[in-house]
Design goal:
By secondary structure, the chain is of the alpha/beta class. It is built from 10 helices and 13 strands. The strands form 3 sheets. Strands 7-8-6-5-4-3-2-12 form an 8-stranded mixed β-sheet. A 3-stranded mixed β-sheet has the order 10-9-13. It has a two-stranded parallel ribbon with strand order 1-11. Helix 3 packs parallel to helix 9 (253-268) and helix 6 (114-130) crosses helix 7 (148-156). The N and C termini lie far apart (39 Å).
């Protein structure tokens, strides 16, 4: 089948709007449906181009606000024919309704011991199902924060895929015992880890294929590299709020153009890199000495000029 593209969108109420004192409905408006370029807009663009995407939905705000905001996200996505899988920001379990933050609040999943990670994943899974989603088979941790204990806990819950390994964010909070530049899907502690796609930078670092972090030209370069080198997967990342400014009140024209352009690109490349849901994946070739695309000074300069 060539390179299978997993276009992933993390969909969530944001912490910054919560600590600013927003109730869930205002938070929803600014982080899930901001400025006319949020969840519904992204679903419409995907539909226009005949693409599939996976929306990783964080159900943990239901601990504080009840199930309604999570159900709204899930229903919106599923009514559009797209896939819902499990996302998790654990700090919501310790949140206060007035937005204050306790000194002992733990923000990243990996900063909990194994037993607590296992309990949090079970709780989040149950909340997502209560909101109307199918039993999840794929997971991404908030902030890409996973370690080997996280995968052991996912395997216990029967979750087949993790999509959290992000070498650009390693060794913390993306803390699996895998190479930072791991590119090929690999079985690790009973789960198939599908790494976030990366680009090798000129100084030897990594830059991940997140829509707000790389230009359309860089994403096209990385996709062509994946196709040419027979990578089994290509996985870019977006967010429900990412096409808007941080306050959620205005569209961000630079990032919106990237998302629109990426969708057009994926439609153009559909024969070589078809978009998939996790539920569509068959047996993936695992392992192998695959490497990220190499950045070029021209691509980096183009991104910086565009952002300016």
């Amino acid at each position: 089948m060539g390179t299978q593209t997993l276009l992933t969108i993390d969909t969530e109420l944001t912490w910054r709007h919560h600590i600013a004192g927003s109730g869930w409905e205002e938070n929803y408006a600014r982080s899930v449906e901001p400025a006319g370029v949020g969840l519904r807009y992204q679903l419409d663009v995907l539909n226009d181009h005949g693409l599939k995407a996976c929306f990783f939905v964080d159900p943990m705000p239901a601990v504080l606000f009840g199930i309604d905001p999570v159900r709204r996200m899930v229903e919106t996505i599923m009514d559009a024919g797209q896939e819902v899988q499990l996302h998790l920001h654990p700090m919501w379990e310790q949140a206060s309704a007035d937005g204050t933050v306790a000194e002992n609040t733990v923000f990243e999943l990996i900063d909990h011991p194994f037993e607590k990670q296992r309990a949090l994943i079970a709780e989040a899974r149950d909340l997502l199902i209560r909101a109307g989603a199918p039993d999840p088979i794929a997971f991404r941790s908030g902030s890409y924060a996973v370690n080997d204990n996280s995968l052991r806990a996912l395997a216990e819950r029967g979750i087949r895929y993790d999509a959290s390994h992000n070498g650009c964010e390693g060794p913390w909070p993306s803390a699996l015992s895998l190479p930072l530049d791991q590119t090929a899907p690999v079985e690790h502690h009973g789960v198939i880890e599908i790494p976030v796609s990366q680009m090798q930078t000129g100084n030897g670092g990594l830059r991940h294929m997140q829509i707000c972090a790389v230009s359309l030209a860089e994403m096209a370069h990385a996709l062509d590299h994946a196709i040419t080198n027979d990578h089994p997967t290509f996985m870019p990342v977006g967010h429900s709020f990412e096409l808007a400014t941080r306050d959620g009140l205005r569209a961000n024209p630079v990032v919106k153009r990237r998302f629109d352009g990426l969708c057009a690109l994926l439609a153009e490349k559909a024969d070589d890199a078809p978009t998939m849901h996790f539920s569509d994946l068959g047996e993936l070739p695992l392992g192998g000495d695959l490497k990220p695309a190499q950045a070029s000074a021209t691509l980096v300069a183009g991104r910086m000029v565009g952002q300016l």
